[in-house]
Amino acid sequence: MSPERLVPHNPATGQPLDPVDCTTPDAVREVVARARTAQRAWAATPAGERAQKIRAVAQAIGAQADALARSICDEMGKPIREARAEARSIAARVESFITAADQALADDEGVENGIAMRVRWRPLGVVGVIAPWNYPVATPSNLLLSALLTGNAAVFKPSEFTPHTGALLHRLYSETLPEGLVGLVQGAGDVGAALVASDVDMIAFTGSIATGQAIMRTAAASMKRLVLELGGKDPMLVLPGADLQAAARHAADEALRNAGQVCVSVERIIVHADVADEFTRRVADLVRAVKPGDPRDEATSFGPMASARQRDLVLEQLADARRHGATFVVEGQAQGPGYYLTPTVVTDLKPEMTLVRDETFGPVVAIQVARDVDEAVALANDTRYGLGASVWGPPGPQLDAVADRIEAGMVGVNRGLSTAAGGPWVGWKMSGLGYTRSVAGMRHFLQPQSQARRAG
Ligand code: NAD
């Protein structure tokens, strides 16, 4: 019997790309077994040597940035310049991963009541890495680098929408690292579920909340370790005294980047009534200037959505908002060929709208108006999500206090969120379980072992 096949589509044209064979359940088990064998020698390799090999992987990814960018562009429609920047970002961040891993692997030591305690940090074994399509190089690499630098093997399942990019990325890891250490399985959710149910020790996942919940259920049977990086509904608070042009620029850029398909997109703008009209006018002017283009064209900054399914989800939310009385300042249009959706600016939103409640993941600037700061904070926190956020206003202790009240894992103050200087990439509430980056994030990929001895 011939294997099932994935047929990805070019979102700019709607045309099918070359098919890719799905991995059978038996083959999933074999890939995991090979990774387990390779992991033993990898775990015994000094951390410094492992880091050197990972640097070589990052270099290989950088050297293939153009090929990766073309593949990202063709499979999910990201404009080529942004796709190249994504591929190049790995080399730029690898040193911070290496530093965090080095610190995470160091023993913790202490003495109490005559007992000397040493905490050793041991690799877990094999980590299943399951990735989404929106950053098909950067997102799996964050998880793969974390797993590998801490002495684990990995088995990588790319999204069914970006299997060619996944295969190319996998080749760059596997050609540089020991045989079998990084395995590849291809397929849709059923193959992801087979990987979760397999003999892996941990699942590191980036994707939607619903899939994260499904993974938790499957992983419960064998009590697997989990890191789940999930969706967001990031608020951006704009308060009186903010630099309105800078805030409007940020809103337009970060609601529309990658056609709005970023986990930390600006999904909800909550603007104080005193500055709402001027802010809305400025954003609308910026958004009207955005022109969709061919993602392969170096001049394009706004391309198609990744799939017809994703575009239809956004259109459904916009229709629901219209039914509930929203005002469309700029009205997005579906355009073909391909899965284009031009940007929307919409106001007069109500809490019951799906556009306010659920992740949109599309090119929509959604504006809510708050009477005062307390209402703005309450609206920002009235969600099951808690990934990112930003607050905009006169810099100082008052604005810092507003940031402190936001229930999100990552908050930017007069800028977008960032994980510079060893900060964690982390969600709050239903936006995540466990986290990555930072020393503490690296330790999610390790098993602590307390060793007690008589002191002295
Ligand atoms: P998705 O959850 O549909 O799919 C993600 C991956 O999970 C795919 O590889 C898919 O095949 C696999 N999968 C599906 N069902 C599975 C199952 N039952 N068991 C195991 N694996 C399964 O998400 P998507 O549409 O690819 O990506 C978009 C989502 O990812 C958005 O919600 C976005 O916010 C989120 N995301 C989060 C971050 C973050 O850092 N928090 C980053 C990027 C994307």
Automatic annotation (TrEMBL):
InterPro entries per UniProt: Ald_DH/histidinol_DH, Ald_DH_C, Ald_DH_CS_GLU, Ald_DH_N, Aldehyde_DH_dom
Keywords: Oxidoreductase
Domain of life: Bacteria
Occurrences of domain Aldehyde dehydrogenase (ranges): 9-449
The keyword Oxidoreductase belongs to this UniProt entry's keyword annotation: yes
Active site: 229
The family this protein is said to belong to: Belongs to the aldehyde dehydrogenase family.
Protein name: Aldehyde dehydrogenase family protein
Source organism of this protein record: Nannocystis pusilla
Lineage: Bacteria, Pseudomonadati, Myxococcota, Polyangia, Nannocystales
